Amino acid sequence: MLVVIANNLPPAVRGRMKLWFVEPRANMFVSGIKDSVAKKVVDYLHKYCPPESGLMIFNSSNTPPGYEIYGLGDTRRDLIELSGMPLVIEKSPSPVIQPSEMPKGG
Fold it and tell me: What is the pTM of this model?
């Protein structure tokens, strides 16, 4: 399975994606294409999408943890790897205040 989430795709790329994928929401595409075709789609997206597209691609995999995550441009989410597991984290809108940095009342 391949899931593609984008901030904004070029019209030509979005039209082409609609040939292979279901688009349940704007700029979100889901398909059960084979791995060999999925690689071609990922290569196509990297070739024809500018960084402003903000791509996040989830691809099923036969190796642990069972999926791969690719990103291109500003995805509005951060991609990290923790103990070999790729994860998506929310970007914090403001810096987190540590307990040691909190003002002390008096």
Answer: 0.73
Q: Is the dihedral of CA 52, 56, 86, 59 positive or negative?
A: negative
13: three-class secondary structure by DSSP: helix
Q: Tens digits of per-residue pLDDT, 37-54?
A: 999 999 999 999 999 999
The 3-state DSSP class for residue 14 equals: helix
CATH, residue 74: 3.30.70.240
DSSP 91: P
Q: Of 94, 79, 72, which is closest to residue 7 (Cα–Cα)?
A: 72
Cβ atoms of 69 and 57 closer than 8 Å: yes
Does 55 fall in a domain? yes
